[in-house]
From TrEMBL:
Its EC number is 6.2.1.5. GO terms for molecular function: ATP binding; magnesium ion binding; succinate-CoA ligase (ADP-forming) activity; succinate-CoA ligase (GDP-forming) activity. Pathway: Carbohydrate metabolism; tricarboxylic acid cycle; succinate from succinyl-CoA (ligase route): step 1/1. Residues 2-217 form the ATP-grasp fold succinyl-CoA synthetase-type domain. This is Succinate--CoA ligase [ADP-forming] subunit beta. Residues 278-398 form the ATP-citrate synthase/succinyl-CoA ligase C-terminal domain. Mg(2+) binds at residues 215, 229. InterPro entries: ATP-grasp_succ-CoA_synth-type, ATP_grasp_subdomain_1, Succ-CoA_synthase_bsu_CS, SUCC_ACL_C, Succ_CoA_ligase-like_bsu, Succinyl-CoA_synth-like. Keywords: ATP-binding, Ligase, Magnesium, Metal-binding, Nucleotide-binding, Tricarboxylic acid cycle. Binds 1 Mg(2+) ion per subunit. It comes from Spirosoma endophyticum.
């Protein structure tokens, strides 16, 4: 589950990670109030207005039909009002959103942390995630903060420091010091970075996160280390242990069909193709999408109904797939292991009748326990549903449907 920058910073602050303070606002009036409060608290004259969407590259992103960037420095209260008016309610396009962009519903009014002092501010990069190849968590750090880490990895990989942590042992003090040394820090900044890394790792582990990315981490002009940004991904499978974090989910940031699928305990990802697919099991779903491609079509979605497919889940899957206007055919591919094929076939027939006339061809491939019985139920239903047993047979029927559409 993705969360917003301001929510990620709230988590970090609870664990003692120093952050760029800010106040979230959902209107220009609230933004102005927040700016006045921050200016009074920090003593700085300026604030930063940061759009809050689930995508990176906001600083380089641009509002559709405007020159307004997704992150902007406001040098007056009036500027805060104007920038916020240009952001809230409008579409921000970044390299991560794609050309369709994302609607900005709220902004973060943040303190200006690039103030003058005894040294120049320095931007760095730190992230923590799981390295599955080594079965370890890994801290990645770089002196090249504020840039896309992919660019750093491609052009200057020697500037990336990696430190692997055995999850059974945890982060050791010497490892936090290695990260700080790798970033070229010394004195108070070095000590503060050790504390920063230690607190960040604890936050990552305690929240069951799949990724914490701080870009940039800032060494301020008075040698303090703080998080200017926070991109946090939380493991969906562990949210039952963190109801407070689960409440941070912003449904407005997610695809409506994916939200509906989640409410029905379905795993759904919308794609750009013309053949909808409904499958039990992620691996079989991937193979099914390959079959659709090889047959000349393009998968319109990834939809895994899980091991307990029944009439209710099949009906929910049908309704979600059919809400995509690009879908011209549906392939249901079920392996009867945990669930019997005849139960699935009955569920397909009942779901078809409950929805009414489905305007696109449906191919149902059943294999495994009671596959023959399931095929007979489909064939005897009198509905516009084609049955198949072998994968090759299902692929051929998909191909014929694709050809008929051309």
């Amino acid at each position: 589950m993705n969360i917003h920058e301001y929510q990620g910073k709230e988590i970090l602050k609870k664990y003692g990670v120093r952050i760029q303070e800010g106040i979230v606002a959902e209107s220009p009036e609230k933004a102005v109030e927040a700016a006045k409060l921050l200016i009074a608290q920090s003593g700085q004259k300026w604030v930063v207005v940061k759009s809050q969407i689930h995508a990176g590259g906001r600083g380089k992103g641009q509002i559709v039909g405007s020159e307004q960037r997704g992150v902007a420095l406001a040098k007056s209260v009036d500027a805060v009002r104007d920038i916020t008016k240009n952001l809230i309610g409008n579409i921000l396009v970044t390299h991560q959103t794609g050309p369709e962009g994302k609607r900005v519903n709220k902004v973060l009014i943040a303190e200006d942390v690039y103030y003058p002092g005894v040294s120049e501010p320095k931007e760095m990069y730190i992230s923590i995630l799981l390295d599955r190849t080594k079965a370890c968590n890994v801290i990645m750090a770089s002196t090249e903060g504020g840039m896309d880490i992919e660019e750093v990895a491609e052009h200057t990989p020697e500037k990336i420091v990696k430190e692997w942590i055995d999850p059974a042992v945890g982060l050791q003090p010497f490892q936090a010091r290695k990260v700080a040394f790798g970033l070229g820090l010394e004195g108070e900044a070095f000590k503060d970075m050790v504390k920063f890394v230690t607190a960040l790792y604890k936050a990552y582990v305690d929240t069951d996160a799949s990724m914490f990315e701080i870009n940039p981490v800032l060494k301020t002009s008075d040698n303090k280390i703080l998080a200017v940004d926070a991109k946090v991904n939380l493991d969906d499978n562990a949210l039952y242990r963190h109801l407070d974090l689960k409440a941070m989910r912003d449904l407005a940031e997610e695809d409506p069909l994916e939200v509906e699928a989640s409410a029905n305990d379905l795993n759904y990802v919308k794609l750009d193709g013309n053949v909808g697919c409904m499958v039990n099991g992620a691996g079989l779903a991937m193979a099914t999408m390959d079959i659709i491609k090889l047959s000349g079509g393009e998968p319109a979605n990834f939809l895994d109904v899980g091991g307990g497919a029944n009439a209710k889940t099949v009906e929910a899957g049908f309704r979600i797939i059919l809400k995509d206007p690009n879908v011209k055919a549906i392939l249901i591919n079920i392996f009867g292991g945990i669930v019997r094929c005849d139960r699935v076939a009955t569920g397909v027939v009942e779901a078809y009748k409950a929805i009414g006339d489905i305007p696109v061809p449906i191919i149902v491939r059943l294999q495994g326990t009671n596959a023959a019985e399931g095929a007979k139920i489909i064939d005897d239903s009198g509905l516009k549903v084609q049955s198949a047993v072998e994968l090759k047979e299902a692929a051929e029927k998909v191909r014929q449907v694709i050809l008929s559409l051309k």
